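Hey all, sorry for the wall of text incoming. These are the two entities for the joint prediction.
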Amino acid sequence: MVKCNIISPTKANRLFWLGRYVERVYMTLHILRKCYDRMIDGEPSDYELLKSKLDPSQTYKETADFTMGMLYDEGNKSSIISSLKFAFDNAILLREDITSESLSFIEMSIAFIKKCKSDNVMNITYLQNITDWMLSFWGSCEERITNHGELSVIMVGKSIEKMDLSLRFNYPFNTIDLIYTKLNGIDAGLRDLLFDSIVEKRLDDSIKQYRALSNGLAIDYGDEILRELNQLVKV
Amino acid sequence: MKRKNVKIGDLTDNMDMVNKWMERYGVRFGVYKGGVFKEQLFPFDSVPRIISNDDWLYLERGLKQRVKALNMFLWDIYHDKNIIKDGVIPEEFIYSSKGYMPECEQVDPFGGVYAHIAGIDLVEGKDDNWYVLEDNLRIPSGASYPMIARSITRKVSPQTFSENKVADNRDYADLLRDMMDEMNDGRGIAVIFTPGRYNSAYFEHSYLAEKTGATLAFPGDLFVENGMVYYGGMNKDEKKRVGCIYRRVSDEYLDPLAFEDSSLIGIPNVMEAYKLGNVALVNGLGNGVADDKGIYYFVPKMVRYYLEEEPILNNAPTYLPYFREDYEYVLAHLDKLVLKEVSEAGGYGVIFGRDLSPEKLEELKQMIIENPRAWIAQEVIDFKDLEIIEGDGFVERKADLRAFVVSGKETKVWKSGLTRFSRNPNSFVVNSSQGGGFKDTWILLDK
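and here's what came out:
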């Protein structure tokens, strides 16, 4: 059977957002774990900044509500369960591209988080399975997606989400620069199709500016670079 | 546990593990209840239906014969209509059928094949005879379920498959791929065209696309230009010609410019490309005229007419109230018959006379009198029960078999099938949309 090597606009959109949501699950769990650890025996000053960045609208007053809400609140679009569902909504439409094996890691994560929710599991360590499955998902994609363009689009989504969250949570510039370098490694042909060239130029200038200013360390990145990053992809 | 000379104890003991794998792979089907779409796991029972090699050889011959005759009938109806001219089937049965499409008159489908994938529903009677209950020639679904069930049960209980000699059914994707390649004939790519995620059989569409290597196309992905069908890429100039569409969208919604103009899930102008012979549609258009429940009655006559052979497979004893002698019989024996509305599918519109109160029987009688053409009546076949696992034990339930026949240059029968069973002890209705479950179907290799 002749393989179709071109990617439709709707498929590109799904691949991109699948990459973003899976990375969002992985990164948010990572940040939540850090926050949860500080909340075990720390003072509010130890975790308030992280907590307010994870929950900017201050929906959850108590730390217990915050943890449960960030994990299981389906009304909260930033919760782990919501991000997993959004990832699934895209993945289910891409089975023949990402393979049933890759999709199964998201299926298992959803079944598992629903079970944790019904059991009222608050100890975030129990959700380590989901972190492991997200990593397995990426490994499976690298191993099994045979269309290089499709793999590139999904990885662009992953890199943009990782960079977005790293900027929001003030990661060291060296980390952000590394993600940016990966994002920049995309094929020239695909770059023309995916990226808005004007925004790309502006983002590149911002990165150069931070490279000069930051000395590789964390600084206040401001909102402009986030806007540029989120406007970069056209699909 | 030992059944019919097969050993399945290890498999049935590991049912929980099988179900975990089913969940992992998302083996689901969708149903609309009260207008709301709900997806649920398709209940699987690990006790397989077992068909002996001799029985299978008989079924295989009968299924090939039946599908060949049905394909010849479809060609005839949309071309010369000899079967009507020769008085074998009254013309009103053709032209009043909802599945007849005048737009298909004189259209030559590639290779002359209309029903590339036929799903033939059978039951095994307690008299050891197999009976065909229904022919599904439009978009029959279900093959993916035993396919994935087999790959899972082999993982969970390899011992079961080394102890029993069972025909491997994981080649269904190969059968499909070969047929689609033949229909495509090197013209372009092959796609499986799905109406989308909220179709009840979406799992199957995506799974078959993965396993055949075909592209899964959604509404909006395909377009027609100068009588050719294309799959569009991200770049406006980027497109690939499509030579074969395995479409899982109903006839009436497939082309809004030719059929239902409110359809948002079709491909505008695909009918034009089909007529020009620039794209093969799998299955062809207009097949509904041959799987109409009213036409079912005539299938044995078709076999004799086109193939000059005696039908190998039996129909269930069927009456058409349209004919005077059957009309009298049906009205007099309503309480013993099963009545089916010819326009319904999926287990809907099936009425067992014995379950009705005298008032309801009278209502049914009036409906038949008002429109006899809208009904068929069948004797209730006392078909064999199959064992299913319930709790810690086994119980018996009604089950049917959907056999899949794939026709390209040759007609081939898939050595397996979807066995559906009723979970309700008092019910003969096995459809998944009515709460039924499914089993794998084993064809034994040893004589």
